[in-house]
């Protein structure tokens, strides 16, 4: 099976022809998952099963973990991948725009591997912007750099930007076919998202689209997203983007250059030490948040899914972060 290359490796033509992995549903049996526990497999951060038997009340009474509204969460030590605490962290659920963490990760791997100019102009098709939800306010037939598109993906959480990235980069992976539906035009990119998920041992993850709008064939888990974020913190370009509070993009529209300013939806950036990653929300996934906290020698990755409200997710994250900081300071 094709394994996506490391950033300094090249994609072979044979690898690019590999089909998408077999589609699974969100409630499918996990018995068909690849067995990654045999000798020689990589350690999966936070793989302990202990916390799965505890309720949130048990975690609070036994270990002092604060009570939060999130139905799934994990706090990972970003320095070594240790699971500091978790609840329902392996449960397959929809994760809304946290999907875009993988979209950005794969896009940047492709940019490096195929030596694509980060400031190359990308074309916005009519189909790509016919989508609901959060938007970067792109118009059909706009022309915009890949660099700006990545900001439109991660700051305002543009579903349109996700489609444009997937469609344009799919054309670098495989010769484009214009007279087919968008979902098929972006399939090479979606397939690569799933290949990277397999390589990273994200065993409870499958992607069907690049933006995270509700679909039963798209799912992940808090633990898998923490594994992905552990990779992302080592990527300076992604970290530069997700740590910006705003970005001004230049777009060619109707033969004129216009400026668009995008503000980051992640309010955790207003607090000291918080420097990424991403917000998410759909009715089915609920309010979600992936957060990075760094101060002195402490590095925390916090994933919370399906919180009570968009406002409460900030409080949930701060509670878990403060608890973990105290725990690491005392150890």
UniProtKB/TrEMBL annotation:
GO biological process, one term: proteolysis
Compositional bias segments (type: Polar residues): 25-54
Region (Disordered), start-end ranges: 1-54
InterPro entries: Peptidase_S11_N (IPR001967)
Peptidase S11 D-alanyl-D-alanine carboxypeptidase A N-terminal domain segment(s): 66-306
GO MF annotations, alphabetized: serine-type D-Ala-D-Ala carboxypeptidase activity
Highest taxon listed in the record's lineage: Eukaryota
Name recorded for this polypeptide: Peptidase S11 D-alanyl-D-alanine carboxypeptidase A N-terminal domain-containing protein
């Amino acid at each position: 099976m094709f394994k996506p290359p490391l950033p300094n490796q090249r994609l072979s033509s044979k690898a690019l022809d590999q089909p998408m992995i077999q589609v699974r549903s969100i409630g499918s049996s996990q018995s068909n998952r690849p067995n990654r526990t045999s000798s020689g497999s990589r350690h999966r951060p936070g793989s302990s099963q202990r916390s799965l038997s505890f309720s949130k009340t048990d975690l609070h009474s036994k270990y002092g973990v604060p009570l939060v509204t999130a139905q799934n969460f994990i706090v990972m030590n970003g320095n070594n991948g240790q699971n500091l605490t978790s609840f329902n962290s392996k449960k397959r659920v929809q994760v809304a725009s946290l999907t875009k963490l993988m979209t950005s990760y794969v896009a940047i791997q492709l940019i490096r591997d195929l030596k694509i100019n980060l400031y190359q102009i990308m074309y916005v098709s009519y189909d790509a912007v016919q989508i609901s939800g959060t938007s970067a306010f792109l118009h059909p037939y706009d022309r915009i750099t890949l660099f700006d598109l990545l900001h439109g993906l991660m700051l305002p959480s543009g579903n349109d930007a996700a489609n444009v990235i997937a469609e344009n980069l799919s054309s670098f992976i495989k010769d484009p076919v214009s007279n087919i539906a968008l979902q098929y035009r972006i399939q090479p990119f979606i397939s690569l998202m799933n290949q990277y998920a397999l390589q990273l041992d994200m065993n409870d993850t499958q992607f069907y689209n690049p933006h995270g709008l509700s679909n039963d064939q798209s799912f992940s888990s808090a633990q898998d997203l923490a594994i992905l974020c552990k990779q992302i913190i080592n990527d300076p370009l992604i970290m530069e983007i997700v740590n910006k509070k705003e970005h001004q993009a230049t777009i060619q529209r109707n033969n004129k250059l216009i400026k668009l300013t995008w503000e980051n939806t992640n309010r955790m950036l207003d607090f000291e030490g918080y420097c990424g990653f991403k917000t998410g929300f759909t009715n089915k996934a609920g309010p979600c948040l992936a957060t990075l906290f760094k101060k002195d020698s402490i590095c925390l990755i916090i994933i919370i899914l399906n919180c009570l409200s968009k406002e409460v997710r900030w409080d949930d994250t701060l509670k878990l972060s403060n608890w973990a900081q105290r725990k690491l300071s005392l150890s």
